[in-house]
Amino acid sequence: MIVGGLLSPIENVLTDVLTWLHDTGGLSWAWAIVALTVMVRMLLVPLAIRQIHSMQSLQMHAPEMKAIQQRYKADRQRQSEELMKFYRENKINPYASCLPIVFQIPIFISLFFVLKDFEKEIFKQSGGSLDWLGLVDITEPTKNGWGPVLIVVYVVSQLTSTWLMSTQMQSAAQRVMIMVLPVVFIPFIINFPSGLMIYWLTTNLWTTGQGIVTRRLMPRPAAPPKRSSRTPPKEADSAGEETVEPAAASSSGPARTGPPRRVKKKKGGRPRR
Fold first, then answer.
1. Is position 273 within any domain?
2. Domain span holding position 114
3. I want to staple 161 with a disulfide (CB 3.0 to 4.6 A). Which of 20, 81, 144, 204 is the partner?
4. pLDDT of residue 231
5. Which comes out higher in pLDDT, residue 61 or 218?
């Protein structure tokens, strides 16, 4: 398979790390997968921090971006150009929120191929136990035995981690989609090896804990100053402001004191001369 060939270097690294954790670290194969997941997530912490800052910035500037979308809703190209300009001016990277998941996809697929031939290539040489908590065999499909329990925990953990790491939803459709996606994936993951599900569960639990900690410890970036619609921009103040000279200053007579005199205009015609 082409994908397997491209990911062979990652498969070799994962195999070596799992073998080292089992043979040298004394962990069972299932707990070696948990330890491997923690190591991967620790390496991705800098990307996770960028992801959190990006999400906070997107949430903070959401009203302004929505206003741009409404202003240029009839011109999609202009809308995209204005949004990109807005991103540059406010130093927002809309793709930073996707970086951790993008880097995890190759690892996830590579681990799938490692577990696919695990008994023939790795377990045969090192031996050990394939069970996890006496419930599942890491090489068997998740639908077997107690595997469905893992699926239930996966759905709950996926919903929790996604909700904590998501930006503010702009519509009910987006909120529904986030809640439905983990359930939609179930027909595909029930045939995955249970060891792969253990990896994904550990990832979700890490993401959930990371979201809780960062919400408490990481301050939000300062919100942009809000401008009132009644306050004209500074450029307009300096360029469009007119200086009105009082009429009394141009006359040679003494300055008039007291309240200003009201001048009545004639109805429906020119002012009386």
1. no
2. 2-217
3. 204
4. 45
5. 61
